[in-house]
UniProtKB/TrEMBL annotation:
Belongs to the 3-oxoacid CoA-transferase subunit A family. One of its GO terms (molecular function) is CoA-transferase activity. It comes from the Bacteria. It holds the Pfam family CoA_trans. This is CoA transferase subunit A. Keywords: Transferase. It comes from Acidisoma cellulosilyticum. InterPro entries: 3-oxoacid_CoA-transf_A, CoA_trans_fam_I, CoA_transf_BS, NagB/RpiA_transferase-like. The lineage of its organism: Bacteria, Pseudomonadati, Pseudomonadota, Alphaproteobacteria, Acetobacterales.
């Protein structure tokens, strides 16, 4: 079996980055994002990227650092509300955006990984989402056709991996990562822990290693929270 583990993110991305490529990046908000790989892409200086991701990070973290560096030409996303620079670039006509309902985006990626070229959904019928797309009736209900999404490179974040590339995600980090791992021509997994083959319970593996081409172990994760919302602890009668 060929070696899948790489010493660092620079080595893991070597030979896989070029101007104008399409990149899928896992994560939801700032949860489960491949921080180390994003930083390596920033350092590479690659430009004119089309990025498929649920969102574009925040102004100074996640995919937001690629946006700040002028490396992203187009975003295919479902939510962009946490990034002020994104808004400014889009309104100024300097950033293309293909907006998707969130479930539609997820299914477009899943379809790409499954080899399904297109599918029909009721979501978006009668709205601007359906503009320019085929609408067909099934059993008296209208559905809009959506095409699958694939990428030249998928970067995903997992909790654990073995050296064969079998991946386990932790809690809500199991968001867009599993489907994106299947939809890239090449997939790099950034993980927190790498184990030997046979150390992962087969019933707990979320992404089989057949989908993963390269593995890199990250470290010193920030794991930021986009918006910290708290409330005063209630005062209970007879306590304290």
């Amino acid at each position: 079996m060929r070696q899948k583990t790489f010493t660092d993110a620079n080595a893991a991305t070597e030979g896989l980055l070029w101007d104008g490529m399409t990149l899928m990046a896992g994560g939801f908000g700032l949860c489960g994002i491949p921080e180390t790989l994003i930083e390596a892409i920033r350092r590479s200086g690659v430009r004119d990227l089309t990025v498929i991701s649920n969102n574009c990070g925040v102004d100074d973290f996640g995919l937001g650092i690629l946006l700040a560096g002028g490396q992203i030409r187009k975003m295919i996303s479902s939510y962009v509300g946490e990034n002020k620079l994104f808004e400014q670039l889009y309104l100024a006509g300097k950033l293309e955006l293909e907006f998707n309902p969130q479930g539609t985006l997820a299914e477009r990626i899943r379809a790409g990984g499954a080899g399904i070229p297109a599918f029909f959904t009721k979501t978006g019928v009668g709205t601007i989402v359906a503009d320019g797309k085929e609408v067909r009736s099934f059993k008296g209900q209208d559905y809009v056709m959506e095409t699958a999404l694939t990428a030249d490179l998928s970067i995903v974040k997992a909790w654990k991996s073995d050296t064969e590339g079998n991946l386990v995600y932790r809690k809500t980090a199991r968001n867009f990562n599993p489907m994106m791992a299947t939809a890239g021509a090449v997939t790099i997994a950034e993980v927190e822990e790498i184990t030997d083959p046979g150390m992962l319970d087969p019933d707990h593996i979320h992404t089989p290693g057949i989908y993963v081409d390269r593995i890199v172990q990250g470290m010193a994760y920030e794991k930021r929270i986009e918006r910290v919302t708290t409330r005063p602890r209630p005062i209970l009668e007879g306590v304290g």
